[in-house]
Design brief:
About 75% of the residues lie in helices and about 0% in strands. It has six helices and no strands.
Length: about 110
């Protein structure tokens, strides 16, 4: 399992442009990560957004309950409108576990 305090460092290793500071709560880091991903989608940088989705998928698969909860309730909630808007260009970029979370989110 990924220690919660290492989340910003792990994201920065994969995405050096991500600049969330260490020491913030898990939900604040994931919120910043969601904002970063959203900005990439809005700029049309879909390949880099796809990398963000893959990192989010790895964090979700290997994270604590707190991290999984933040990804479900902050990251997926925040990016869902963009994924809906850019469905054709983003199709297939979101890892399957995150797609399933999105589907559950829409069923509520």
């Amino acid at each position: 399992m990924i220690p919660d305090e290492r989340i910003p460092e792990l994201i920065r290793q994969q995405l050096p442009a991500f600049t969330a500071a260490c020491g913030h709560s898990v939900s604040k880091v994931i919120h910043a990560f969601m904002e970063y991903t959203s900005a990439l989608v809005k700029k049309g940088q879909l390949q880099e957004a796809g990398r963000c989705f893959r990192v989010a998928g790895v964090l979700y698969r290997n994270g604590s309950g707190l991290l999984k909860n933040a990804i479900e309730n902050v990251y997926i909630y925040g990016i869902s409108p963009l994924v809906d808007t850019h469905k054709q260009s983003l199709q297939g970029l979101l890892p399957l576990p995150l797609q399933q979370v999105r589907i559950q989110y829409h069923q509520i």
